[in-house]
Amino acid sequence: MCSRIKIFLVVVIIFSVNSVTAQTYVTLTPMLGLNRCFAKFDGGDKPDLFKNNASNHQIIFGGLIDYHKNKFIFSTGYLYNHAGYAYSIKSVGHQADSGSWGYKHSSANQGWTIPLRVSYYLFKTNGKFINFKLDMFGGIAIDHFSPRPFSTATYSNAHVETKSTYKTINQYGVSANIGLTFQFLHRGKESIALTFYYNQGLTKYESIRLNYTTLEDNRSYQSNLITRGTSFGILLSYPIKIWDVDKRRSIKSHTK
Predict the structure, then answer these.
(1) How many other C-beta atoms lie within 10 A of the C-beta of residue 100?
(2) Could you read off the pLDDT of 102-115 as tens digits, one per residue?
(3) d(Cα 57, Cα 37) in Å, to the nearest integer?
């Protein structure tokens, strides 16, 4: 009985070691996607005509170096990113939920992000046609956003006249992010991946003082916004294995 238990334990240990060493490798992962920027309302007039965080979509791209170790992935890299804002102003006489906007505006500062994140494997599907493994991740990022080349800008149409005054608060900061990655599998190997993420900016980058006048009734308002680099996005990526740690170890062991 004791000998059987010992044999069983040896088999379990061997299997565990093999399963660990078979999952240690490094990938280079180029990514391309779209994110939606959000800004914080920071006081001033906020009548029913004004809506903060209207649609502001920006392209994001770059790449990550991923170190895969068992169920964990440790990642860093470089991403082209944005910190932006968007707002809409209703035409006079329309309710805030009517969908009739007299004026829409969005803008963003360009910059870069260096993410530092950890992913954890949750589960893998075993279907006949489409298979994927699901990872969840979290981490922090070092961000940089360039200041604008101008301090004021005026925009207008038949309904609204606006003047935006910009002030740079910080160029460097940090953010925290969480997300899910659907890593699709083709014949058991990693293929295209789809990532959904939320990034919460922790640093104030720019203040925007917005003065606007509704031309139908000639009334003036002021609203203040703050950008922090907060965004929600989706990324398409493809991992390229550049270093198989276990294969290298196996070669070294055979050459000794």
Answers:
(1) 9
(2) 888 999 999 999 99
(3) 7
